[in-house]
Amino acid sequence: MMIVAIDGPAAAGKGTLAKRLAAALGLPYLDTGVLYRATAKRVLEAGKDPADTQAAVEAARSLGKDDLARTDLRDAVTSKAASQVASIPAVRQALLDFQRHFGNSHGAVLDGRDIGTIIFPHADVKLFVTASVEARATRRHLEFLGRGEDVALADVIADVQARDEADRTRAAAPLMKAADAELIDTTYMDADAAFTHALEMIRRKTTVRA
């Protein structure tokens, strides 16, 4: 049973990479960011403030499979709200057991902000995936346009910068590279190059032959 922890800032490409690695390694995959997005969506749809600790914790504890399967969790409003609920220590605690149970059941590839530092500090492999703010904002902007959302690139850049600051400075599990994590900078890498590079790193650290 192997745990691969992939952390990094928004739009660095860690989700795409994690899915491909999970398929190649024959492991379950969990996008832990979806947990916070689904929590945020529940809060918003209840007409409550994402910064309201009680409302956010209640939403986190009530998540079900249907919440995680939603396809409307990546709009700009939900993304901003997800950052707010993720900064609440009680919300992170409420979702901690879910993440650990998922990984400990059959092994897994998990991506998020604190997988290698908090959720699975003893993961078999830790990767920290990052890219420049401009590259990440451009990717996110294209995602919005692809969904028909008319969002200015300058606004996306500002949002990415704000999200980075919130992730780095929050009191609960701030985003940081684990000391033993391998760094992958995808600024000038396409998805195929990042996948090949990451898989080679995993091969060097484990006995995997995928």
UniProtKB/TrEMBL annotation:
GO cellular component: cytoplasm
Residues noted as binding ATP in the record, renumbered to the chain: G8, P9, A10, A11, A12, G13, K14, G15, T16
UniProt GO molecular function: ATP binding; dCMP kinase activity
Signal sequence residues: none
Origin species: Acidocella aromatica
Record-annotated Cytidylate kinase domain positions: 4-203
Entries under CDD domains matching the protein: CMPK
UniProt KW keywords: ATP-binding, Cytoplasm, Kinase, Nucleotide-binding, Transferase
Pfam families in the record: Cytidylate_kin (PF02224)
Places the protein is found: Cytoplasm
Name of the featured protein: Cytidylate kinase
Catalytic activity line of the entry: CMP + ATP = CDP + ADP; dCMP + ATP = dCDP + ADP
Family: Belongs to the cytidylate kinase family. Type 1 subfamily.
Any one biological process term the GO annotation gives: pyrimidine nucleotide metabolic process
InterPro entries named among the record's database cross-references: Cytidylate_kin (IPR003136), Cytidylate_kinase_dom (IPR011994), P-loop_NTPase (IPR027417)
